[in-house]
Design a protein that fits this description.
alpha/beta; 32% helix; 7-stranded mixed beta sheet; 25% strand; 266 residues; 8 helices; single chain
């Protein structure tokens, strides 16, 4: 995948890091899922479409609450991992490989569409009307994001410095608490009915944080073999020198809840 305003157009492929993604990125805390449940969403027989599902982290963790999940992703490797993990847990979730822009469902199929950690990769102009049509009346979109805070957490900050040493065009560094991105195109068919941010501390081991960072876009998804080897050695050495075996990393969660406009005819 290449997007002109992301990493100066450098290509990245989540499929290259799917095994790390499956092992190390299932890290959302209980507060994250409880927030969604408190909105009355993704449970009790509701039909949910998870866009950019990756390894199915969101559907698999919320499966227990009774929603009927479908997960799609552009990466075949990601979907293979999602299917494997769901099968190991005995979960009946429909995962398939498909770009968000090419999904095809009858009108009023879903109660909720979730878009977690991937809204900036989507062609909003191509999906806005389609999403409004496949949602039921008063159907919801949830845009979800969780990020570490490098200016507040010294380990996270040092990790970013090492990524930039080996991949200087990576532009996902320097995050601060802010509202999650909602494309302007969505506002033609949806109303923003809630937007909120809250802080969370996420526990890691050295191996867990190292794997989490390797599974990010700036590392495993885009570095070549030589760059990745250099990063791998330096980042782990930094953790051995500066971090205890177990530690917390400061994060924040940012969520936007959108609803199909009342005057939109599905």
């Amino acid at each position: 995948m290449q997007i002109s305003n992301i990493d100066s157009g450098k290509s990245f492929d989540w499929g290259n890091t799917s095994k790390d993604y499956a092992k190390y990125r299932d890290i959302y805390p209980k507060e994250f899922y409880q927030y969604i449940l408190d909105l009355g969403l993704c449970k009790d027989g509701q039909k949910i479409l998870d866009i950019g599902t990756g390894t199915g982290v969101l559907p698999r963790n919320m499966y227990q609450f009774g929603g009927k999940w479908v997960g799609t992703d552009i990466s075949e490797n990601q979907i293979e991992q999602a299917k494997r993990l769901a099968a190991e847990q005995g979960m009946d979730i429909d995962f398939y490989t498909c770009p968000a822009e090419k999904i095809d469902y009858p009108d009023k199929t879903f109660d909720v569409i979730t878009i977690c950690q991937c809204i900036w990769y989507l062609d909003a102009a191509a999906i806005t009307e389609k999403f409004a049509k496949i949602l039921k009346e008063q159907g919801k979109i949830l845009i979800l994001y969780m990020g570490w805070l490098p200016y507040e957490d010294p380990i996270a900050g040092r990790s970013e410095e090492i990524i930039l040493k080996y991949n200087p065009v990576w532009n996902a560094y320097g995050d601060t608490v802010h509202p999650v991105y909602v494309p302007d195109e969505f506002l033609t068919h949806f109303d923003i009915i809630k937007r909120e941010e809250f802080r969370v501390d996420i526990p890691f081991t050295r191996e867990g944080w190292h794997g989490r960072m390797r599974a990010c876009r700036g590392v495993g998804a885009s570095m070549n073999e030589e760059e990745l080897k250099g990063w791998d050695n330096e980042h782990m050495q930094m953790l051995m020198d500066t971090a205890p075996e177990e530690f917390m990393i400061k994060h924040y969660v940012s969520i936007a809840e959108l609803q199909v406009k009342k005057d939109i005819i599905n």
